[in-house]
Amino acid sequence: MHETGVHHFQKDPAGFVSLLSCYETAWRWPDALHLLISTSSTRALISSAAGNVAMSACEKALEWEQALRTFWWMIEQSLQPDLISYVAAMSSCEKGHQWQAALSFFERMRLESIRPDVTCFNAAISCCEKALQWQQSLELLAAMASFRVASDSISLSAAMSACTRSSRWSAALYLFTATLPCAPCARSAQCAACAVRAAESCVRAAPEMLEMLQVTSVMAQQSAFQ
After folding, report:
1. Confidence band (pLDDT; 50, 70, 90) for 185?
2. How far out from the chain centre does Cα 214 lie?
3. Rounded to whole angstroms, how far apart are CA atoms 12 and 35?
4. Residue 84 within a domain
């Protein structure tokens, strides 16, 4: 079946990518990966787009190791990774709790002059949050400004959660209160809930601060359903 598909799409790289996408949609990551690698000798079909689809198929199936292997396979095939490649790679690192690998991909992007987007940052921050690397999470959040990438509720809540889970409750509360006046994402129910959890965990939190955060959380949840 694979050989027939390759023969059919030999002069149609876009169609070959579409075939891989069908496997991705059907959660058939082994078929997508096998088809990609088995056609490595057909240079007309091998592209970064094809590799990205195979990576995404593995990543969505939680096969993060296979996704990262596909990234390095692309390098071996002299294919130039693009932003989509790095998003898939860092999302895979998040699935596998590989925060150091995620940061190394960030460094590689910098060396290749590829500008990370909010999805890249969110994946890296979430990866650091799961590994209790709260300082790295805050550094990544701060780096978003230097790249002129606006943070969203995922960025902020992941950084706050990293602080809370690392018993840095004051840092989580400060992050929330400092960004609340200027960042609309801080008004989300997700961020407000993170702030409440931090306040409840912090024995030094003033009662009025906890009450204020609980009210903010309720208001944010109500606005989310409007």
Report:
1. confident
2. 29
3. 15
4. no
pLDDT at 57 over 90: yes
Q: Return the structure tokens found at 18.
A: 């579409």
Residue 164: inside a domain: no
Alpha carbon distance 128, 23 (integer Å)? 31
Task: Say if residues 179 and 193 touch (Cβ distance below 8 Å).
Answer: no
| Burial environment of residue 31 by CB neighbours within 10 A (0 to 12, 13 to 18, 19 or more) | buried
Which one, of 190, 186, 168, lies nearest residue 178 by Cα? 186
pLDDT band with cut points at 50, 70 and 90 for residue 83 = very high
In a domain, 221, yes or no: no
pLDDT of residue 1: 45
Q: What is the DSSP letter of 116?
A: P
Based on the structure, what is the number of domains in the chain? 1
Burial-class residue 33 by CB neighbours within 10 Å (0-12, 13-18, 19+): buried
pLDDT tens-digit series, residues 105-136: 999 998 999 999 999 999 999 999 999 999 99
Q: Which helix (H) or strand (E) holds 220?
A: helix 207-224
Q: Which residue has the higher pLDDT, 88 or 43?
A: 88
Q: Do you know the residue count of the chain?
A: 226
Over residues 177-195, mean pLDDT? 81
Determine the residue type at 193.
A
Spatial neighbors of 18 by CB under 8 A, at least 6 apart, are none
Range of the domain at 38: 1-79
